[in-house]
Design brief:
One of its GO terms (molecular function) is quercetin 3-O-glucosyltransferase activity. It comes from Trema orientale (Charcoal tree). Belongs to the UDP-glycosyltransferase family. Keywords: Glycosyltransferase, Transferase. It contains 20 helices and 13 strands. It is globular and about 70 Å long. The chain is 43% helix and 13% strand. It is of the alpha/beta class. The strands form 2 sheets. Strands 3-2-1-4-5-6-7 form a 7-stranded parallel β-sheet, sandwiched between helices. The chain folds into 2 domains: 14-262 and 460-483, Glycogen Phosphorylase B (Rossmann fold), CATH 3.40.50.2000; 280-456, Glycogen Phosphorylase B (Rossmann fold). Helix 13 (305-318) packs across helix 18 (424-436) and helix 18 packs across helix 19 (438-458). Helix 2 links the parallel strand 1 and strand 2. The two termini are 16 Å apart. The longest helix is centred in the first third of the chain and has 23 residues, at 97-119.
Length: 485
């Protein structure tokens, strides 16, 4: 472990933190920064210019352009900077997503390198580089500037482990097989009991594995094997075997869930949303406890028009109270989606539809009794933290794998669509089961148990707090070792 006396006199780390540019990555990375700063670390947080532009445009930021101004007033040592991702602000990163991903390999790291070089000479000089795992340049930039390298994974440890062991999946014919991928259960990934191929992430089920997404995964997970530490937004109690198996290879620390507390201060000191948020509290205050279904299919991935319309008519059939977060770009990044004619007249005061909201504020409201979700990891963690059971409708990427955890392993949710195509009758039946039936009460019990598990992990002597302290101690050890070299 090293000389404790030396560690005590090692200055607190100065971490430079880079999130990935998507909402599901920006939010937990900001919470990570606040958590580390609250333990005494100096933080320089770096958003890309386009993320900064979207956050400041979406909400009035006190303190001008500095989204961390309020956090600093509260005593946290956080400095804020922005960097170009290599594309102009007006470039549509979603319409041209493949081109944008390619820029992540060459253009963006050059801008990062330039910024890091200038901060190595700052006071105090940066000592630690913390970057979203899906950045294939972490260890290279850290090594060049003699920094501790830390890879931050914003999804569950199960998804990390599957990506980490792509070579095993490939060797066994479950991924990238010329003859078509095997369909029998996968039981050879260290720490993973067994998983069906249908529950793998969507990009691992594809036959064409030469897309920019695949290249990003390959390169990022080659790089991750060279970093000093891995951080994961999960908790030990939920994924103990998987975390232990990864820890046998590299030091990994789980100190999630990196979500705001549903009680007390629900609004963060730091704005995180890339879209303007609507306040739903007045409408919710008029509804009985546990009577409202919260519906959201996430911030990024496109839905199918037919599915959206079946969900709309299913909500009508169910006669449930609902809040539906329906983004204008729900089915296309090029044109806004419009609901079926007459739909909004039929719902009367049963439903409220808004383009975006402060999610944890809504689902922690006593009126909310369930969530129809795409199973993005932040949404799953927030639902668990609020004790809200889920109807699961995964779209892409890691969401199907997250669904397996929620429905099959933890019994905190039901599947919306057991077989394609989705129908309005099935939507209404599943809503009824969750919101009114005995099955819904059982799911709520399991979800409330899960909430207690998360709360215990975050308590002063809980697993997440211990893991965070251990991480900071071990970073200090590394800093002191390097300063003596």
């Amino acid at each position: 472990m090293g000389d404790t006396h030396t560690i005590d006199h090692t200055p607190n780390p100065h971490d430079i933190i880079f999130p990935l540019c998507y909402q599901g990555h920006v939010t937990p990375t900001i919470h990570l920064a606040i958590k580390l700063a609250s333990k005494g670390s100096t933080i320089t947080f770096v958003n890309t210019q386009v993320v900064h532009h979207n956050i400041t445009k979406s909400q009035s930021v006190k303190g001008g352009d500095d989204i961390f101004a309020e956090a600093r007033k509260s005593g946290l040592d956080i400095c804020y900077k922005t960097v170009s991702d290599g594309f102009p602000l007006g470039f549509d990163r979603m319409v041209n997503h493949d081109q944008y991903l390619k820029g992540n390999f060459h253009v963006f790291p050059a801008h990062v390198d330039e910024l890091v070089a200038s901060l190595v000479r700052s006071d105090p000089p940066i000592s630690c580089l913390i970057v979203d795992t899906l950045s294939p340049w972490i260890s290279k930039v850290a090594k060049k500037h003699n920094l501790i390298s830390v890879s931050f994974w914003t999804q569950p440890a199960l998804v990390f482990s599957l990506d980490y062991h792509l070579d095993l999946l490939k060797t066994n014919g479950h991924f990238a097989s010329q003859d078509g991928n095997r369909q029998d259960a996968i039981d050879y990934i260290p720490g993973v009991k067994s998983i069906e191929p249908k529950d793998l992430m969507s990009y691992l089920q594809q036959t064409d594995v030469s897309m920019p997404t695949h290249r990003l995964i390959y390169k990022s997970f080659e790089d991750v094997k060279n970093v000093d530490f891995i951080l994961c937004n999960t908790i030990e109690e939920l994924e103990y075997d998987i975390i232990s198996a990864i820890n046998d290879r590299q030091p990994i620390y789980s100190f999630g869930p990196l979500v705001l507390s549903p009680s007390g201060l629900t609004r963060s000191l730091v704005p995180t949303s890339l879209r303007p948020k609507c306040d739903c509290s007045q409408w919710l205050n008029t509804k009985p406890n546990h009577s409202v279904l919260y519906v959201s299919l996430g911030s990024l991935i496109l839905s199918n028009r037919v599915d959206i319309e079946e969900i709309a008519y299913g909500l009508l059939l169910s006669k449930v109270n609902f809040i539906w977060i329906l983004r204008p770009d729900a089915i296309s990044y090029d044109e806004s989606y419009v609901l079926p004619i007459g739909f909004e007249n039929e719902i009367n005061d049963n439903g409220l539809m808004v383009p975006w909201c402060h999610q944890i504020e809504v689902i922690s409201h006593p009126a909310v009794g369930g969530s129809l979700t795409h199973c993005g990891w932040n949404s799953v963690l927030e639902s668990l933290r609020c004790g809200v059971p889920m109807i699961c409708f995964p779209l892409l990427i890691d969401q199907g794998t997250n669904r397996k955890l929620v429905v099959d392993d933890w019994r905190c949710g039901v599947n919306l669509c057991d077989k394609k195509p989705l129908t309005r009758v099935e939507v209404a039946e599943k809503i009824d089961r969750l919101m009114r039936g005995k099955a819904g009460q059982d799911l709520r019990k399991e979800t409330l148990k899960m909430r207690e598990t998360l709360e215990s992990a975050l308590a002063t002597d809980g697993s997440s707090e211990k893991s965070l302290s251990q991480f900071i101690t071990n970073v200090k050890v590394k800093i002191s070792e390097r300063s003596r070299q």
